[in-house]
Design brief:
Layout: H1 2-37, H2 45-48, H3 57-70, H4 77-92
Length: 101
């Protein structure tokens, strides 16, 4: 019984780590992209102020796209998604949409 429980726990922990790896990798890359290209104008207070403009996930995606185009960053879809993932996980906390990954 103890061996089966230990095996089940080990499997569950392994699956959690495997599931979390792509999410963390995307958020980490998103953080690097954001810090390298956006923090010259934005501070973290931009995202936490009460009067912030972004109220929905779609608006956050639109702002990321707008400014990446404005700055001619030529980010691919996965880079835009990573920046979204970073900003959402650290500041906005919108529900995670499985279709948006």
């Amino acid at each position: 019984m103890r061996q089966a429980r230990l095996s089940l726990c080990t499997t569950a922990i392994t699956l959690l780590f495997l599931y979390a790896l792509p999410v963390s990798a995307g958020a980490e890359r998103g953080q690097l992209l954001y810090e390298n290209h956006c923090t010259s104008c934005h501070t973290s207070t931009t995202h936490i102020r009460e009067q912030r403009k972004t109220k929905t996930p779609a608006e956050l995606r639109a702002w990321i796209l707008r400014w990446s185009d404005e700055l001619k960053l030529n980010w691919h879809q996965d880079e835009l998604a990573d920046v979204y993932q970073y900003l959402n996980s650290h500041y906005y906390k919108f529900p995670v949409d499985a279709a948006a990954k």
